């Protein structure tokens, strides 16, 4: 009953929320909003006129400034009064070019005419040179050219069908110099009308551009010669004394118009833009909408009732599904499902926080294990990009960094004046690591430490790439000195720190760390503190070496891992590169024999005897008579690599099978605990990728699929054979109850409660 009451309240709230706002908004818009809408429409119209006025004013200012510039730039080698148009061909051509440039400099220009006072001619780019005929015309042009202003507007020129009544006059030259010529700029009526007509896009109103003292320049879409009655009314309404932008509402033939005025300053004058737009047109859409809202209010209420009911059902269904996920097979005896969901969410958040804390507790160990595998070369199968991504996952900054390795070795534990004794190696190593961590934190250095638990520490130092090599090396040695001094003074042991070579490639770190550890053997006996520079201990010659060391390193890694396809490909590439670098047969032969020896050494280090693999065949005796490089390579593949790979795979398969069997035993005995692939890999002394691939190869399933299925099988036994609660069973098999319910339904298709009921029916 309480649950139904909550639903009814929610339904009523939904109805009120859907129906009431529509009716109230409609009434407010129609009754109270009309006046406000008119005011806003008038304001919008005034802003439109102001914007159009500003834009037109900018166009005209641009035209005036361009023409004022031409009044000084349109100069010839001689004065206009001395110009002979028919003999001075060069100057005449320059005039035509200048007139063409002026005409194309602004879209408002329809025609440009040059008037020469001395010659009494008019020059146009389109019609050429035309003498002025009548004395009245000569006097008119002379008066226009000698006007007191250098640039001004006039309507004394007779316009054509394509030009406006007013033209722009520019005296040449300007200033105080006596005028010898003038430019008459006729304005393109179509372009100017288009600018004005934008204020009346619907064509239901009127627009006008006129001088403040009278004189029409444009009526937009209307004809100046035949203005409409509305145009005449609008022009009469313009106050010649207007000094600023204004807006009013005027009536004409029983219809209200929003009339807005804009003012622009021209040369020695002011022009006015006026626009009249029907107010009904501006507010028609809103008024119609408000009426429609009232007319359809009744139908809207009925529709809102239905939609409220339907919407509430649709909105409540996700809540029901969420409750079913949280409590499968059970009902909630509460009046507020959302409060219950909030409680469950808090519970899940607490569990998530606990898991996050566990992860954070394990993160240092995971980071140290990853770094250990990296420095020991166990991650050679990863590319540079993959290594960078993995280190980024462990919160290591690797971008724009240079990497350097340091090896720290402690000696004299048996001569430590009773402070330490035999068997305390792990304790001393742990103390040394803690001291090193404190030093790095105090110096704000990016240092990661690996504890080998045998009085040896490995340090990976990350330095900014913008540092110079000298400053990076100096920082490493200062750090090594402080570290050796602190460890010696606190632990009373001999300390040797080996400073390795820097690199920007993560894949080179195993080799650099091996060099750093090997350099520790060069320490001097009896010294309390020593700093060894790997670069000083490794002599560097200056001979040109053609041997491909990097390719050999990749090849030996493939040999150790037993990757036969990659190994065969690398051998062919090795021979190809060796032939490219060596120009004589002896160099290629020596390179292949060097590779053969290194491969033999790698096989022996792996614990295999080549004499047993190839039944006592003398390798060097066989190769002594082989001259062709391809034959040497073929012999190595047949008598070295193939026997080794077969024995290695046989041994690896046995070891892998034993490893997986041990992991299966761990799963079967500890499935109720927190088990992960990484944890099992650490427990059995391997790395996660090897265990993942091996587990899939031996069992045919992934680690997580096998663990999940085994846990669910144990849960199904408990559901059938016991009466324990489902939440308790979930905990017993290693899951949180909500996650267990979702997982069970995903794999079995039904909830745990339904599975128990189904099993009980079958048993009956």
UniProtKB/TrEMBL annotation:
The chain crosses the membrane at residues 12-33, 292-312. The keyword Transcription applies. Coiled coil: none annotated. SMART domains: HTH_ARAC. It comes from the Bacteria. The keyword Transcription applies. InterPro entries: Homeodomain-like_sf, HTH_AraC, HTH_AraC-typ_CS. GO terms for molecular function: DNA-binding transcription factor activity; sequence-specific DNA binding. SUPFAM superfamilies: Homeodomain-like. Gene3D superfamilies: Homeodomain-like. Keywords: DNA-binding, Membrane, Transcription, Transcription regulation, Transmembrane, Transmembrane helix. Residues 661-758 form the HTH araC/xylS-type domain. This is Helix-turn-helix transcriptional regulator. It comes from Paenibacillus roseopurpureus.
């Amino acid at each position: 009953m309480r649950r139904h009451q909550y639903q009814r309240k929610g339904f009523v709230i939904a109805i009120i929320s859907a129906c009431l706002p529509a009716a109230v908004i409609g009434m407010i818009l129609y009754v109270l909003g009309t006046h406000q809408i008119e005011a806003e429409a008038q304001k919008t119209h005034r802003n439109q006129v102001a914007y159009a006025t500003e834009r037109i004013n900018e166009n005209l200012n641009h035209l005036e400034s361009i023409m004022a510039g031409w009044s000084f730039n349109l100069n010839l080698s001689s004065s206009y009064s001395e110009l002979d148009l028919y003999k001075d061909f060069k100057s005449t051509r320059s005039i035509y070019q200048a007139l063409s440039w002026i005409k194309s400099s602004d879209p408002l220009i329809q025609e440009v005419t040059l008037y020469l006072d001395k010659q009494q001619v008019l020059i146009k780019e389109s019609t050429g040179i035309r003498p002025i005929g009548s004395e009245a015309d000569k006097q008119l042009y002379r008066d226009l050219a000698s006007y007191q202003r250098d640039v001004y507007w006039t309507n004394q020129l007779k316009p054509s069908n394509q030009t406006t009544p007013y033209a722009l006059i520019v005296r040449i030259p300007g200033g105080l110099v006596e005028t010898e010529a003038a430019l008459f700029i006729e304005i393109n009526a179509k372009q100017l009308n288009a600018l004005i007509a934008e204020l009346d896009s619907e064509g239901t109103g009127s627009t006008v551009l006129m001088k403040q003292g009278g004189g029409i320049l444009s009526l937009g879409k209307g004809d100046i010669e035949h203005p409409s009655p509305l145009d005449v009314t609008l022009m009469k309404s313009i106050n010649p004394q207007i000094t600023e932008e204004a807006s009013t509402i005027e009536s004409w033939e029983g219809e209200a118009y929003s009339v807005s005025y804009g003012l622009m300053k021209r040369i020695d004058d002011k022009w006015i833009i006026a626009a009249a737009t029907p107010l009904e047109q501006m507010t028609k859409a809103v008024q119609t909408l408000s009426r429609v809202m009232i007319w359809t209010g009744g139908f809207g209420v009925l529709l809102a009732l239905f939609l409220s009911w339907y919407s509430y059902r649709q909105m409540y269904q996700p809540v029901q599904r969420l409750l079913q996920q949280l409590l499968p097979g059970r009902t909630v005896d509460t009046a507020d499902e959302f409060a219950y969901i909030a409680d469950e969410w808090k519970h899940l958040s607490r569990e998530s926080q606990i898991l996050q804390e566990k992860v954070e507790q394990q993160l240092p160990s995971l980071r140290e294990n990853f770094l250990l595998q990296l420095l020991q070369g166990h991650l050679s199968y990863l590319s540079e990009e993959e290594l960078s991504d993995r280190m980024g996952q462990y919160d290591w900054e690797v971008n724009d960094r240079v990497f350097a390795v340091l090896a720290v070795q402690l000696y004299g534990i048996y001569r430590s004046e009773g402070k330490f004794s035999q068997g305390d190696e792990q304790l001393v190593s742990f103390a040394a690591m803690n001291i090193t961590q404190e030093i790095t934190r105090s110096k704000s250095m990016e240092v990661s430490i690996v504890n080998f638990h045998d009085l040896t520490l490995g340090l990976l130092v990350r330095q900014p790439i913008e540092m110079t090599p000298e400053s990076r090396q100096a920082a490493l040695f200062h750090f090594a000195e402080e570290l050796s001094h602190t460890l010696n003074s606190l632990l009373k042991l001999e300390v040797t720190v080996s400073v390795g070579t820097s690199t920007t490639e993560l894949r080179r770190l195993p080799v650099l760390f091996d060099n750093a550890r090997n350099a520790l053997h060069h320490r001097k006996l009896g010294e309390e503190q020593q700093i060894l520079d790997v670069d000083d201990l490794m002599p560097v010659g200056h001979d040109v070496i053609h041997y491909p060391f990097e390719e050999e390193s990749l090849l030996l890694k493939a040999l150790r891992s037993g990757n036969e396809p990659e190994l065969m490909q690398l051998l062919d590439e090795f021979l190809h590169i060796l032939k490219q670098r060596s120009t004589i047969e002896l160099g290629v032969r020596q390179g292949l024999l060097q590779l053969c020896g290194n491969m033999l050494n790698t096989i022996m280090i792996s614990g295999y005897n080549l004499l047993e693999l190839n039944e006592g065949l003398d390798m060097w005796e066989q190769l002594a008579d082989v001259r062709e490089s391809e034959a040497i390579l073929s012999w190595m593949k047949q008598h070295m690599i193939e026997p080794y790979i077969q024995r290695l795979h046989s041994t690896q398969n046995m070891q892998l099978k034993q490893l997986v069997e041990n992991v299966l035993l761990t799963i079967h005995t500890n499935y109720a605990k927190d088990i992960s692939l990484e944890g099992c890999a650490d427990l059995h002394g391997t790395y996660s990728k090897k265990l993942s691939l091996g587990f899939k190869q031996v069992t045919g399933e992934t680690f997580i699929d096998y663990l999940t299925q085994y846990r669910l099988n144990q849960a199904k036994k408990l559901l059938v054979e016991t009466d324990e609660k489902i939440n308790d069973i979930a905990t017993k098999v290693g899951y949180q109850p909500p996650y267990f319910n979702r997982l069970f339904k995903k794999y079995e298709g039904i909830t745990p409660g339904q599975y128990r009921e189904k099993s009980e029916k079958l048993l009956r």
